[in-house]
Structure formats: structure tokens, C-alpha cells
Amino acid sequence: MNLYRRAIAFFGVVFVGIGIALLVVTTVNGGAVFGYLVGVLFIALGLGRLYLLRARR
User: Fold this and answer.
1) What is the rounded end-to-end Cα distance, in angstroms, of the chain?
2) 15-31 tens-digit pLDDT
3) In whole angstroms, what is the distance from residue 48 CA to residue 53 CA?
4) Cβ–Cβ < 8 Å for 40, 19
5) Global pTM?
């Protein structure tokens, strides 16, 4: 089960990274609302996964 928890934590961090990258790219390219929305949703997804992983201990 330890490998499962590490994989979930890894994907949570990856999703947060993708969200931050989307926000940066959207800002650099002029700022479309859809890019900001998707970036924030990816960050929320990653943080939610990490929160649930920690809360279920």
C-alpha cells in the first residue's frame, strides 16, 4: 500500500505543477479566461488529492 500512497502523492504534485505551468503560459500569451480556469482547476485537483491522502491516514 505504500507504493500506492507514493504514486498518489506524485500525481498530486504533478497536477499542481501542470496547473502552475498553465497559469504561467496563459499569462505570458495574453491571458485567456479558459487558460486561467483550467490552471486553477488542475491546482485544485492536485491539492485535493494531497489533502485526501493526508486526511485518510
Assistant:
1) 12
2) 999 999 999 999 999 88
3) 8
4) yes
5) 0.87
